[in-house]
Amino acid sequence: MSLNAGSGFTGVDAPSPADLSRCVHCGLCLSACPTYTTLGVETESPRGRIALMKAVQDGRVGITPRVVGHWEMCLQCRACEAVCPSGVPYGRMMAATRAQVRTQGRQSAMVKGAGRLLLRGALPHPRRLRLGAGLLRLYQRCGVQWLVRSSRVLRLLPGGLAQLEAALPALSRSFFGPSGETHRALGEKRLTVGLLSGCVMPLMQADTMRASVRVLILNGCDVVVPLGQGCCGALNQHSGDLEYARRMARRNIDVFLAAGVERIVTASAGCGASMKEYHELLQDDAEYAEKARRFSELTMDITELLVSLPFAAPTARLERRVTYQDPCHLAHAQRITAPPRAILQAIPGVELVEMEQASMCCGGAGIYSAVQPELSGQILERKLGFIAETGAEVVATANPGCMMQLEQGLRRKGSTARVCHVVDLLDEGYRGEE
Amino acid sequence: MDQPSLAGRFLDELRAIVGARHVVSHPEDLLVYEYDGSIDRRAPLAVILPASTQEVSRVLALAYREGVPVSGRGAGTGLSGGAIAAPGGIQIGFARMNRILEVDTVNRTATVEPGVVNLDLDMHAHKFGLRYAPDPSSQRACTLGGNIAENAGGPHCLAYGATTNHVLGLEVVLEDGAVVSLGSLARETPGYDLRGVFVGSEGTFGVTTRIVVRLLPLPETVKTFLGIFPDLDSACTAVSAIIGYGIIPAALEMIDALSIRAVQNVMDAGYPPDAGAVLLVELEGLREEVEDTSREVEAALWEGGAAQVQVAEAAEHRAKLWLGRKNAFGAFGSIAPNYFLVDGVVPRTKLTQVLRQVSEISQRYAMPIANVFHAGDGNLHPIMLFDERVPGALEKALAAGGEILRICVEAGGTLTGEHGVGLEKKEYMPLVYTPEDLAAMKLARDAFAPANRLNPGKIFPDGQDHPPSPHRAAPGLYA
Q1: What is the pLDDT of residues B376-433, one digit of tens each?
Q2: Which residues pair with B384 in a beta bridge?
Q3: Which end of chain A has a smaller Cβ tally under 10 Å, C or N?
Q4: Inter-chain touch B27–A47, beta carbons under 8 Å
Q5: To the nearest whole angstrom, how far is the Cα of A57 from the nearest Cα of chain B?
Q6: Contact, A313 vs A391, CB < 8 A?
Q7: Do B141 and A27 touch (CB under 8 A)?
Q8: B460 lies in some domain
Q9: What's the pTM?
């Protein structure tokens, strides 16, 4: 046997023995796991990945490239967590496990590279991102992209990068961003909300951001998009860069708590899930633990907030056959499945057709589509099949990553179905009244 | 692997049959195949993931030639160690053989591969107004092949019978690779009912590769009652009252206070946290029939001493009540890191008495024992909650479980209702069978698998080729 009693986990950011012992290996998570149901091997199942964590903890096996490979294959969609009868907090266990892999220098080259380039180099820096996105927009709009795509240059790139290039959605014509100004509620004011601008949404889905502001003010919210805020840090946290994720969380906590808002709202399911867990991320930070708890308590997904207000149903008709894709971090991490559907069903004329396995991951999963292009593609393929079966002309979802992944997949298939955010449709419903 | 070259050659031949990608053999990867849902462990030599009957047959023929024992593995959710490999043995995994091949709506049958998930088949049947009735609590993940090996039950088996009552025909590969058919699409088969003896043979007779099951029409009306009781005794009285009215509900499930706490720790299933016990009673059938029986069920619940009775008709509300029951075993992870579950069966009339004895054992061992079980058919599931990291705790749990099984047998019951004997209960078999009885069973096995290469060491207490773990010397048996 080549099993070597390795060093196991060391330091503070490690999966806790209490969390690990909560898994009773009943196996009920298997059928919920996109990678297990695609590949059919238990090394790519939640129970298997936890067994490997336990084995490392017990010194039965080291953090070998093979073991790391199985952990890196995880989408972190947390579907297992939602169905787990024992309440195993898989999301934070996997984040802590990746923190171990990272601090012990055992990441695969691809993940390490993506971590440096994207997660530390780009996402946390709004100005860099904006500059990069501006150049990219130029690339897309002045014909260079057409040239690159029709040439053979892409074939020279490694698989992940070519896939990433293909995944790039058209950048928004004009970007969105924090301004510090208050967008005043129309009609009677009910709440003051702070809106997270985020990292990629203001550049790639700026229209959704503007739609978010419009639907919020139409429903009696003063909306501020505080200056100084940044990326939520979710992707850093998922990749195990907890130190950097904490830094990013602290920045947002400072900015939003100083803004004196009554709710912190995001249109990105992934960001919302991470922001609602800032209190776990910072629980050992004496200065920020309490502030993080307050921040997490104030955070709401935009669909959750709209339904709680409650929002006004549009009166104009929007004749659309719509299917809804549950973002994993909305359905599984935040357990929010009814509000987005309630919003869609409140729009007169919208026919909501459920796809099979609507809450199964689309394979986007943050940087997953770039670091695991093959499996991401297989998972996406299944999703596209379910979407096609519905005959829907619109695929609504509630997370930027899902929007990009689905958009890319549908275009590649030559589908004419449109991908949008739930609030985009609500906004269109309201605009139809004008 | 003391002769790596031999093992290496064997593995190469396996790879040639199913493709290298479908043979899991790296020791690190095999760590995730050493367990199922129970407490025994052993890593296999390799896991083979075939895609067809032909591949299964070739793998078995090869293993037979090499003298390597073979165990089948569906989703590894079993509760008696049925999927755990024998020493030096391989597992055949059915994750790739997971197609629903046909639904015949006229004859109400479905033909499936063994890796199909129980709930997937049921949900698929719903599209045609049909259902697959056996519903083990692990139905969301467990597979039909495993259900057949263990003759799995489930809450609704009270009215509809266990897996064996729903299996019409099987395609089976024997230990030497021969492919045979058992049973048929017709309801009766001339000659021996081999399908009947095969279902529940725990993987020792053959490996199932294709299954024809019976589907039932979906009921017109379903109604679920939640009876909330101050204690376990009054809930047991209500069970007797329901049976006394001559009612056979579709399901009749008991959940005790400790189990309620575990479930509510993890999810809101709508069970009151301060209840001493709850009863879930489900009625199904024609609307008028369900209405009539409803009155009697309610009366029986009150007669038993219910503090409150809730009725759920909306699918969503019923699903919530059932979610708690179906997730109960896993939910114990929120109370203790380990559990040991026994599957004893007692006559319904002895429920109160046996549960009192279980409670007495719990006190004597100073170990929490939860009860969540199929009250309608007297199928107990006492669950010892412990932490294996505490020295002696595992042995204590096993001993308490052994005592409970002995009590069940003394009360006129038996060792297992639906989980199988496997590794877990084999040491207890002499409690219910004489040596002659066991010898007769072995004769049946020898007829199917004379070389005893399939899942050896399971069921029979003397499994030479699957020595009991050190902690498994039948603790509690002779207390």
Answers
A1: 889 999 999 998 889 999 899 989 998 999 999 999 999 888 889 999 889 889 988 9
A2: B340, B369
A3: C
A4: no
A5: 13
A6: no
A7: yes
A8: no
A9: 0.91
